[in-house]
Amino acid sequence: MSCDEVLDRMDDFVDGTLAPADAAAVAQHLDGCAGCRAEERALRRLQTAARALPCGVEPANDLWPAIERQIRSGTVRDGRFGWWSGDAAGGRRLLAAAALLVAALGAVVGLLVVRETRRGPGAPGAAEGTAVTLAVAPAGETGAAAQFARARTELRAALEARRADLSPATREVIDRNLEVIEQAAAEIETAMANDPGNQHLHGLLLAVYQQEIELLLRAAKLPAAS
Amino acid sequence: MNTKRIVTMAGVAALLALPALAQQTVNERRPASPTGTVEVSNIAGSVRVIGWSQAEVEVTGTLAREVERLEFSGPPERVSVKVVARKGTREYEDTDLTVKVPAGCRLEAETVSATLTVDGLTGTLDLESVSGEITVTGEPGEVEAQSVSGDIDLTVKSATMRLASVSGSIKARGARGEVRVETVSGTATVEAAAVDRVELETVSGTVRFAGDLSANGRLDAESVSGTVEVALPAGASGSFRLKSFSGDIDNQFGPPARRTSEYAPGVEAEFTAGSGGARVEIETMSGSIVLRKR
To answer: Which residue(s) pair with B218 in the sheet?
Structure first.
């Protein structure tokens, strides 16, 4: 089975709805193809993130404007246990949309990494490909990268704005772990500067970016007095 | 009665009344569907949720004086138990609750610093805490638990687990189907027999898996600077792919790790043990990889 044939069947494979013979053929292909495995992993991440979403949330094509609006409107700071109370639908929508952004980022970058892998590290343009651009400069011009950069900036601003609501212990945990993430990203980026075609590093950097967004989201939804 | 005696008696009466002001006791019940959802939230103290065979939710315990009320409401399909604090409260004393719920219900429980203990439930658990410890025992069908700094400790026979903590430690024993564990700096340990799928992800924490994969099981682990340790039975068969950019690989199953490039520091080990079947992939940046026999 070729990569294209496998990718055509990947959704069903990940969902577990593929016929047994096809599933076996896909599994066999995955054993020997790192690119398709990266695609599979990205899809599974998306599936996991989607499972965590509240029911009835429709994903938008461009997710960030909705997230931005709600952060600016202050919904995310909605009082004691605001996130947990029944009247916090705005907060839930915000986080659902942001979670979709994280999932979409994972899927998009996963695809880009696959594309890069297929092109091969030694292939022309490999080092200048989209995945590399995204990994080295997340605030670059690509749609997903730009959305990610905005999400990070706004979520960090939201965290700063509600810093006083959180206990010193919680603030310390969040700050320390954001530092851990920043340090990890810096280490990876340094390594990538020496080995720009390394898909392994791209994948790790993506995972770190996702962790950062997830941590910021978690911090944004913490109740006051946490 | 002289004035001095009156003052003394008034003082004694006031002192006797203090405990009542400090705490309120709770003992309430309401009907609940055996397959419905029960929501529980508390701030500080403890929440103990126990599954029982009755179609009711029972709440007993004591409320701290900062608590305005216990909101115990909702139709049988969605019962809510919520500790509502007085507005403007910044410091909380302990509110300790024991909540008995239908064993097969879905539980959604959230705390800030309160510990959360769950036992005897067979439905889906969705648990969240900021700094309180989460402890689960029994046979829930599915568990999703997350914390910021609170530890998560599960001893369960569950089909699916999704566990995440920022800096708290995670321990999961008894997993059967799928396990996904994610930390930033927290350590995580998963012990399982014949599990189908394991995903471990950390930035700087140490993550460990000790157990066995099913015939076509998969284990994926990813770390930046944290160590990844995987211990499998000596006769485990499967395809293995271990890769680290600058960390060490200690491999007891296959050939020693080899350099991936003459110029870059990466090492990797890719091999098949036995007849294959299961698949193990571990990637790190600078974290060590340890693959050992149990």
So the answer is: B197, B279
